[in-house]
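Question (not urgent): is this output format expected?
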Amino acid sequence: MTRMPSPVKRRYDATRRQQAAARTRAAILEAARGLFAERGYAATPMTAIADRAGVALDTVYASVGRKPELARLLIETAISGTGQAIPAEQRDYVQAIRAAPDAGTKIAIYAAAITAIAPRMALVLSIIQEAARDEPGLAALWSEIAERRAANMRLFVADLATVAPLRLNPDQAADIVWATNATEMYQLLVGQRGWTPQRYQHFLTDTWHRLLLAE
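Got this back:
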């Protein structure tokens, strides 16, 4: 009796599935950014986000969670510049800063990174700040992000201090970096005063050199 050949099993293509999931998430985030900017956070139902993204509502919940989780993800992806949250220590520019041999290079890398992040954060910031007046959860989220930034600034200053003497004590130096790299500063100088991003980047570099490093 002739045996029939066994059917060939198709290899599961996890990469293709992951790519499709990433595209879906990106579409949802783009839809949410646009609708939140047009209508406001509170006035935008999740069904509207699903409709604009061209997916089912259940897909939105499975991909990004409910509206507070979506707001968090908008902030995190604006910071990372990717479709997902990336812890600070895993970001390319943070690793480059830590590997840099001198304070000038560290400051230059960080100023360039902030200049790239700020435009992405500007839209998200206006959305979250407006909604936070009526949404205690968003106010708490923004406060959490601010405190996390402050902690990261202390790490940045500590790293600077390993290669150069500081003009101020570390806490004061970290506060200066925290204040001057805020998205609000970018909005004032680039958004309202018409500075170019290049001028803003030079401003950060020069300011941190002058205020943080001892002569």
